[in-house]
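User: Sequence in, structure out. Go.
Assistant: Echoing your sequence, followed by the structure tokens.
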Amino acid sequence: MRRGAAARLVANAAAVAAVLALLAGCGQRGPLYLPDSQPKKKLAAGPQAPAPAPAPLQH
């Protein structure tokens, strides 16, 4: 194999490996993002009204 052909083969193999690595990605769907450095605190929900009592059964 000549030197030019070997260099072309290595370049093609590197290009195929790069394309495969880009296609594999990280597996996350949707846009990539950087997580916040500190998670935001969730706001506590206010007191909820009690559920209404069921109506008494009438026979």
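User: And one key feature?
Assistant: The helical segments are 3-24.
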